[in-house]
Fold this protein.
Amino acid sequence: MKNKIIIAINELNVPDVELAEERTLSCLNDAKFYSTEPYDFFFTDYLVGKERELKSFFLFYENFMLHFPKFMQQDEMNFYCIQKAIVALEVRKKCFTDPETTTVKSRFSVSASLYYGKNFEIKSTGKNCINAFRITQNYIMKNLKS
């Protein structure tokens, strides 16, 4: 998983790749004390001018998710049980009509509410919209509470 994450950071073209890799590896190191290898990951990103910045980092497991908000600046980790715990979703998209095709103007975000009162949001720009869509399909939609 570590190698996949490093490749993803490089593909996102963030300004300080070394810092992003260092901070991500620190999150992975923290996570290993609480669980096994994650199944998947996601970086929330946004554009500041023409530069892409990473805001938060998510690790997905079978029954829960680890969220590292503002992982580039601080050490904070939130555990969310997501197994059949999502009760509301809000999906927003712009210039993203095909989950396999993006442009620099593409935007995709999902806000989710959990039945026990917590919320989380994934946001993406450009090529990262494809990753956000995959995470939405594989982990968020499958965990809607009936």
